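Human: We require from you a protein record containing the residue sequence and its fold in token form, and nothing else.

Assistant:
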Amino acid sequence: MLLLAGLSIFFCSCKKETAAKAETVTIRDTVYVAVHDTTTIPALISDTTTTVIVLRHAEKESTGTDPNLDTDGILRAEELSHILGNIAVNAIYSTPFNRTRQTVQPLASAKGIPISEYATSKPYNQLVTEILTTNRGKVVVIVGHSNTVPEILKVLSNNAFSVNISESQYDNLFIVNLPDSLKPTITPLKYGKRTP
């Protein structure tokens, strides 16, 4: 299941027959559209822009300094691979931790591409510049943490977008379109099993 924030974006970007299958849900006063197929994300990606898909790692085990994904996290990682199955992903970036690498491993395997690691200690503007320089006009997936995803989104949006991700939230996914001469657009989505 994929949840899309912003009813107008959903109805403008997706086929009419898909819209007919949609159901709306309200989470903390925000209306989302639940989508049960894989047509929504491709409709949000343009061939003429650089697109960055940013998300937090999936659910992790509660023990150890570098925990693996737990059962829910493994299911979410598989769901990520499913919902991005129709997307021509060109690059995948992950921090060097088990939980982040395991979140994108099913996607990387399905696409036949390696996972590139980035250090959380590197300044985010430098990281984003490096990623965009080598992937202009392509689709890139970046997986991070509850504290790094908001910072990466700030850099990608030129400080125009701000979000807080709690320790219990694992279902956020952000589509960032970066046209060469226009302002970036960010579409916040929800995917997989809902988290608080």
About this structure: The helical segments are 7-13, 16-20, 40-43, 71-83, 98-111, 124-134, 148-156. The beta strands are 2-5, 23-27, 30-35, 50-56, 91-94, 115-117, 139-144, 172-178, 185-191. The two ends are 16 Å apart (CA to CA). The first strand starts at residue 2 and ends at 5.
